[in-house]
Every structure is written in structure tokens, then in C-alpha cells.
Amino acid sequence: MISDNIKNVTQRIARSCEKSHRRPEDVRLICVTKEADIIAIEEALGLGITDIGENRVQDALLKYRVIGDRVRWHLIGHLQTNKVRDAVKVFSLIHSVDSIRLAREIDKDARSIKKVQDILVQVNVSGEESKFGLAPGELKGFFKEVSLYPNINILGLMTIAPETDDPQKARPCFKKLRELKDEINSLQLTAYSLKLLSMGMTNDFEIAIEEGSNVVRIGRAIFR
Ligand SMILES: *Cc1c(COP(=O)(O)O)cnc(C)c1O
User: Is the C-beta atom of 34 inside 6 A of ligand 1?
Assistant: First the structure.
């Protein structure tokens, strides 16, 4: 039942917040709908979900035709430059920006529709070959360049932890992302300090919150 699942996830978020002396309203729940159909999504919206996450621009466009602007749309999957024009039309936050080239394209297409696009920078903290994202060492160069782009607003960082049998093993990855955010803020590489840390999925969101996450992206725990 989707309603039971949402209740359960919300309670677990609240408990993790309590444990780490944070307020539950400071952690935003993104309901990941990549494997959900319209009926299931409508049910989630009826239960108070305000933010949904999709992996692929094409899938999001189809759903957007039905759902529209009743929710905020988040792009959480890899973005190819040839999909940017569509992406800036739909998404309020793009979590997966991982190159200067992509950022430049987003800036250009956002400008053409007079939008300032909110983004997060995806970081490959674990260094796994299979993962998208900038290496931590590439961040400084990225920020120096992209923070000057007028039609992009960088709000924070995003990462995907390695898949493990034990969520505790993801903790160092989350901790590292938080440290990277603090480092970028202390170097004042952006006009505004970075606020958002998008980290934590069904298997590991509680650990992520304990390490400072304020955006969790949850699919299976809601729609399974
Ligand atoms: C699918 C996906 C999620 C949600 O994963 P669940 O395990 O279903 O909670 C979160 N983030 C990204 C980038 C995803 O691709």
C-alpha cells in the first residue's frame, strides 16, 4: 500500500532527524517515480507528495503531460546534452550535472526560455568506474567556471553511494560529500553558499540523514 509506505518512510525520516538533532521539515522527500505508473503517482500526490524524481527526460515528459506543474520535478538520472532543451522546460532541479560542457548547455537553453535553472553537482565520491559524476578533485575547477553562468543556480551536491549489503558501509561516502560542500563554502567559490545535499535512497537514507542529507530520493520503499 502506497499510503502505508509513505507513512513508514516519513516516520523513519523523522526518527533519523531526531537522532541527529535535525528537524524533519528540513529534509525534503523526493518520491522517485521511475518505476511507477500514472495511477500510482496520482495516488502519491493525493497523499501529500510534493516532489517527484525521474531518471530519464523522455519518461518525465510523458508523465508531465498528465501531471503538469502540480508537483516539483527532479531529474536524478544522467543527462545527455541533446536532452537539455527538454529538461530545462520541465525540471525545477537537475541533480545530475557532471561536466562543464553540460552546465554550459543548460545555461544556454535556460537563457533561451528566460529561466534560471537550479542544479546540483553530481559527485562520484566512491570513484567507481560505473558511476557518473565529477571526481572530488574536479570540483574546484567546475565551480570557478560555472558559478559565473548567469542562468544557472548551483544549490548543492548530489551523490549515489555504492550498493552494499550493509548501509553502514555507505556512511563514509555521505560524510565525504558533506565535507566537500563545507570545503566549497569555505573557499567561497559561489556567490551563495551551497545548502543542499542530495543523498540517500531506499537502502541507505537513514544513514545519509545522520550524515547531513537534506534531500532524500526514495523509490522502492514507496512503490514496491
Ligand atoms: C532509482 C534511483 C533512486 C531511488 O532508488 P530506490 O532504491 O528505489 O529508492 C534514487 N536516486 C537515483 C539517482 C536513482 O536512479
Answer: yes
State how beta strands 51-54 and 215-218 pair: unpaired
Q: At what angle do helices 139-146 and 171-187 cross, to 10 degrees?
A: 40
Q: Going by CA atoms, what residue is nearest to atom 6 of ligand 1? A: 219
- Taking the centre of ligand 1 as the mean of its atom positions, its distance from the CA of residue 85, in whole angstroms, is 24
| Amino acid 19: pLDDT | 95
pLDDT at 208 over 90: yes
213: closest CA among 16, 27, 15, 89?
27
pLDDT for position 192: 87
Predicted confidence band of residue 200 (pLDDT cuts 50, 70, 90): very high
> 3-state DSSP call for residue 195?
coil
Q: Which atom of ligand 1 is nearest to the CA of 201?
A: 9
The pLDDT assigned to 14 comes to 98
